[in-house]
Write a structure and sequence with these properties.
By secondary structure, the chain is an alpha/beta fold. It has a single domain, classed as Aldolase class I (TIM Barrel), CATH 3.20.20. α3 links the parallel β3 and β4.
Length: 265
């Protein structure tokens, strides 16, 4: 797998949208699939309440790969198991843990409900940085689910601290739990995340990952990633399965501008 192959999930619908916005996002996403960066594009993330409407907006004969944003907790996963919408290929689900007072029990409920979904659907459990999240990682890994962390701290324009991200990456990699990362709309948070993931796989200390996440040495990070071979790409992508991005073309342009991607002539 190439380093950026199908890495970028389109998260333009995170937070919900009006019908006019839904239609525009679906049209844009189908257009991205015809653009030069199509091989980098993963799925469209769609809130569960808007699945049916997105299906109706698809042109006849089209098929759309989607990640479902589960807003109903464990019950939402059970309900999703009964849904089939023409034109939509449900390949993944994002389900956040919301009970900050008891993340372990919340994770156990999500794990139990996830067993209702068809085989082959990837289930990403979002892990808030709150007491008990490490125990939740153990439950998720034991049942073959996947992790999810937020680089933006849950709000666009905000970036979680290097200490927080390094701590979560360290635990996820130590547990050998593949994961996705949300809120990566610019090149430098993504590049520094990739570099930190590889460093931790190679045995770096957490403080070394923190230094990479602060992205002080831009040229050094670009040079390091540019020298990775296919084995390193595969090793990193086995852990980091995908990222969520609200503005796909902007991120692609940013990656080109810093020298991490080359646009065909």
């Amino acid at each position: 797998m190439s380093l950026f192959g199908e890495l970028i999930d389109n998260a333009a619908l995170h937070g919900g949208a009006r019908l006019s916005t839904l239609a525009a996002v679906v049209e844009q996403h189908l257009g991205y699939k015809r653009d030069w960066f199509a091989p980098l594009l993963g799925r469209l993330a769609v809130p569960d309440r808007e699945l049916a409407q997105v299906g109706r907006l698809l042109p006849a004969g089209s098929e759309l790969r989607v990640t479902v944003i589960n807003t109903g907790g464990a019950g939402g996963l059970v309900a999703l198991a009964q849904r089939a919408i023409q034109g939509l290929s449900i390949e993944a689900v994002e389900s956040p843990l919301r009970d900050l007072d008891d993340l372990e029990s919340n994770a156990a409920r999500i794990v139990a409900a996830a067993a209702e979904l068809p085989e082959g659907i990837e289930i990403y459990v979002e892990l808030p940085y709150a007491p008990g999240w490490q125990t939740a990682v153990e439950l998720i890994e034991a049942e073959g689910l996947l992790g999810r962390i937020r680089i933006d701290g849950g709000q666009a324009g905000q970036i979680a601290s290097a200490e927080q991200v390094a701590d979560q990456l360290s635990v996820l990699i130590e547990a050998d739990l593949p994961f996705s990362a949300a809120g990566l709309d610019r090149a430098w948070p993504l590049a520094s995340l990739l570099a930190a993931v590889d460093a931790l796989i190679e045995g770096a200390e957490q403080h070394e990952a923190e230094d990479l996440l602060r992205a002080g040495d831009h040229d050094g990070i670009v040079a390091t990633i540019g020298n990775w071979d296919t084995a390193t790409h595969d090793r990193v992508r086995r852990r980091l399965r995908n990222i969520s991005c609200r503005q796909v073309p902007d991120l692609v342009d940013d990656l080109v501008s810093v020298g991490l991607l080359a646009q065909p002539a």
